[in-house]
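re the bet — no i am not wrong, look at it urself. input seq straight from the record:
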Amino acid sequence: MSLSHEQPGFNLRKTIFRFMNRRVTALYGRMNAMSQRVLILTTRGRKSGLLRQTPLQYEFVECCYIVAAGYGKHSDWYLNACANPQVEIRIGKKRFSAVAEAVETPERIADFFALRLKRHPFIVGLIMRLDGLPLFYSRDDLLDFASGKAMLVIRPEA
């Protein structure tokens, strides 16, 4: 029996993202340029207890790594980090333990998106506009865009 996109319990989008995440994670060590924008976040599964790795775009701000959950509070990696904030991050060849703090306030998330847009106007702007942010946006547009989204502030342990 094959699974179709109409069967309950099967999510085509989630399946595609899991496949892509596995490929990026497998190739990560061989692509040095990728580590300038992407880290590998390792969380413990909230249900399975297994280690899960997810490649995520990040920004380094005031000794912390910040990642946003584009699909909001329902992203598996985000829920895993909320359930167990002890995580590991890998950037290039460096790995270290860290503690994740969940952030769901639209004001802080909008500030983060504004920083991302300032640092990477073309690619981040394109991604955010494809997700619904207007071409000419205001602070209120950023706040609306940030509502329903979530992010982690990840602090490396000493």
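see?? The two ends are 51 Å apart (CA to CA). told u. also Helices lie at 12-27, 76-83, 106-119, 121-130, 139-146. so pay up
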